[in-house]
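Hi there. Long-time user, first ticket. I'm pasting a complex I've been working with (about 884 residues overall). I'd like to know whether the download I got is complete or cut off, because the file seemed smaller than I expected. Thanks.
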Amino acid sequence: MALTDNNTERRPRGPLFPQWIKTTAMTLSSIAVTLLGLLFITFIIGRVMPIDPVLAIVGERASQSTYDAVYLELGLDKPLIVQFLYYIWDVIHLDFGISLLNARPVAEDIARVFPATLELATLGIIIGIVLGVPLGVLAAVRKGSWIDQVARVLALVGYSMPIFWLGLMGLLVFYGILGWVGGPGRVGIFYVDVVPSVTGLILVDAALDGNWDVFKDAFSHIILPASLLGYFSLAYISRMTRSFMLEQLSAEYVTTARVKGMSEWDVVWKHAFKNIRVQLITVIALSYANLLEGSVLTEIIFSWPGIGSYITTALLSADMNAVLGGTVVVGLIFILLNIFSDLLYKVFDPRAK
Amino acid sequence: MNAFNRLLTSAAICLAVGVTSFTAHAETPANMLVIAHRIDDVTTVDPAESFEFAGSDISRNVYGRLVNLDPNDLAAGYQPDLAESWTVSEDGKTITFTMREGVTFHSGNPVTAEDAAFSLQRAVILNKTPAFILTQFGFTPENVTETIKADGNQLMITTDKKYATSFVLNCLTATIGGIVDKQVVMANEVDGDMGNTWLKTNSAGSGPYKLDSWKPNESVTLSSNPDYYGGAPAMERVIVRHVIESASQRLLLERGDIDIARNLNPEDIAGASSADGVVIADELKGRLMYLALNQKHPELSKPEVRQAFKYLIDYEGMRDSFLKGQYTIHQNFLPATYLGASDENPFTYNIEKAKELLAAAGVENLEVEIGVREAQERIEIGQSFQNAAAQAGIKVNITVGTAAQILGRYRARELDVYLGAWGPDYPDPQTNAGTFAYNPDNSDEANATGLLAWRTGWDTGGLTEKVEAAVTEGDRDTRVQMYLDIQEEFREISPFVMMFQQIEQSALRDNVKNWSTGQAVTAAAYWQVTK
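Hi, the file is complete. Here it is re-exported in full:
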C-alpha cells in the first residue's frame, strides 16, 4: 500500500517511555535507595555498638583460640566496607545470612515469625478500624454528648495504660478467671503442628486444611492479643477520625447541605466522611505499620513468636544478621504501606492523580 | 518490666485470685509433659557445641553418655550409662570402657565404641566453646585419634598425666560427653564440618527422648524413645514452651494448661503456692552470684580493701527481700552439694568493720565502676551494694549493659568491679577451683580469658599450685579436705566476694512426680517423670 501524504506527515513525538514506566522506575529506585540507606545505617550501628558478636556466640567460657576462630569465621577481620559490600551482595540474592545464635538462615526465621505478627496485626487493625472509625464519627457528630465523653475516656485509657499491664489483666480475667479465651501461645498444646504450615497464618492454614477445631482454638488464642492491639489502634484512629470529622462538619458545604434539607446520614457519611478518607488512610496505614513492626510487650506477654520479639532478642544478643534481616523487613513494610496509601489516595482523591 | 510494674501486676493478680478462684478447664494428657520455660538461650543442640542451660536440658534427655547421673539419686554421682564398666591402668592415665551391648540409636544403628570414640574426638577437633572440658586432659586435634580410640567393644581414653579418675568421669557426664550416631552425623557432613551444621538443629542420639523440633524462642518438642535401654519413659511427649513472662507462666499453670512453670518470680511463687493443685519444688542450683574486684586497680588490690568489700554486702537483707526463695547465702566458690563444698559463711553486713579496714588501708574517697548485666536481680544487688558502699565512703558508679557488653569489658580486665554469676560446667570441684583459684600466668599476654582469676588480674597467691595438686589426688577424702583448705584461704585473700547460690523454684501441678532440674550438678531430666 502506497503511503499517502497524510501518512508521511510528522506527528508530534511522544515521550520515550510511557508515564507508568517512569513512575514504576522512580518508585523502585526510591525503594532501593531507602533500603540501602536503612541497611547501611543499621549495619554501621551494629558494628560500632559496644557489643561483641563473637562473645555472644561463644559465651564467656570460651578459650581465646575458640574466640579467634569464630572472629575469623564471621569475617570481622575484614575492613568494614568490605563486610558491608559482602552483606549487600548476599541481600540482593535474598540471603540474609545465618543467625549467629541459632544457626538457622535468617530468611527462614523471618518467614516463621513474620506471619505470626502479620496475622495478629491484621486482626488488630480490623478491630481498630471497625470500632474506631464509627466511634470517631459518632463522637464528632454528637460532640459533647455522653458518646463523645465515652470515646474520649476510651482513647485516654488507650493512650495512657501500659500495654503489658492491660495485657496481663486481660489474660487474668478472660483466660484465668472466665476461661473464655485461650492462654499464651498461638495454639493450645493439643494443636501444635497439627495443620501443615502453608502460609504461616494459622487461621488461614487451618481453614485451608479444613481443620475447624484448630481454627477455633487458634482464634481463641489470637482474639485477646488482637483485641488489645485493636484497642490501642482504636484509641488513635477514633481520636483522629473525630478531629477530621469536626473540621469537615464545620465547613460551609456541610451547612449548605443541611440547609438544602439533606438527611443527616447523607451529610455525615456521603459528604463529610467522604472528604476525610484520604487523611484516614494515612492514619490507618501508620497504625498498621506500627502493629506490623511488632508489639514487643504484647508478644512477650502472650508468648507470641512474632517479629518484634525476634528483633529485640536478636538485638540484645548481638545477632546482627537477624537484626539486619528484621530491619529490612520492617523497612519494606513501611515502604510498601506508603506506596499502597499513595495508590489509595489516587483512588479516593482525583486531585492526586 | 521493672520491679514496680512487677509488683503492680502481681498485686493485681493476687487481688483477683483472692476474690475468685481459677477453675482448671484443661489438663494436659497423662502421657504428656508440658513445661513453660525461658528457652531463648538455646543456640545449638549439638552436644559438642551446646553450652547453655536450656540447651543442656535437651541434650541430657536426647543423648546417652559413657557415664551419667541418675536424676533419682544425684548424690550417688556418676553411674554407668552407655559404658557398662571401666578399668583404670596402673599409671592412672588410661581408662578403658566396656560398652553396653544391645543399645541402639534413635536411627536403629547400634551404639558402638567407635561411635563413642568419634563423638569425643569430634568434640576436640571442632574446638567449640565447651571443648576445654576435654582438652584439659591433654587431648588435641593432632593427638586425639591416638589418645581416644576404640577397639572392638572397648574405648580407651589416655590423658596426658594422671588425674583423679572421678575428675575425668565427672567431665564425661557433661553435655559434651553426649555420644552421637557417627553414621547419621557423617551422612550430613558439609564441607568437613563433621555434621556440626546439621546437628545444631537435629539430633542423633540414643537417649530416652528424640528431638522432634526446636523452634527458636518458641518451643522444643521431644518424643519418647520406645527402645530406650532403660525402659520407655512414661511421658511419651514433652513440650517445652518458651514463655518469658512469669505471670503468664503462672496463669498457664493454674489453668492446668501446663504441668511445670520454671521461671516464676518470688511474687508469683508466693501466689502459686497457695493455688489449688500446685506445689513448689526447690532445688539448689550451681549458679553463684559474686563480685570480682579488679586487682589492676591500685586501691582494690590492697588486702584490707578486698576484705572490706566482703563486709559491704547486705547478705541477709537481700536474701530475705528481693532474692527471697531464689538465692541462699553462700560465700565459697564450690556450690553446696558439690564434692568438697564448704558451708562456712563468715562474712556479715558490717559497715563499721568495712570502714576500719578501709582506714587501715589508707583509702579515702574511693570511686569505682561496677559493671552489671541488665537482669533485674543483679541490678538490685548492685544498688544494694552501692548504698552500703556509700555509707563506707566509697562512691560506686553502676554501668548496666547487655551480657556481651559487660562481659567483653570483664574479659578485657577493664572493669573495676564486675557483678556476675557463674555456673559450674561439670559436676567436679575442679570446674570452679580451676577458674576462681587457678591462674598460672597473670600477665596480659597470657590472655587467659577463660579463667576468672586472670580476668580479675589476681595471681592467686599460691592457690594455683594447690588446685593442681587437688585435681590429681586419687583419695576422695584427702581431695575433699584439699578443697576445703583451698576455699578457706580463698575466702580470706581472694578478690572475689562470693555472695549467693541460686535456688530454682519450679511450680508443678501436684500430679507431677519425680521432677528434677538436675540440682547444681546437671540439667533437667524428663524420663523419670510420671503423672
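A couple of notes from our side: The mean pLDDT of chain B is 92. The CA atoms of residues 29 and 531 of chain B lie 9 Å apart.
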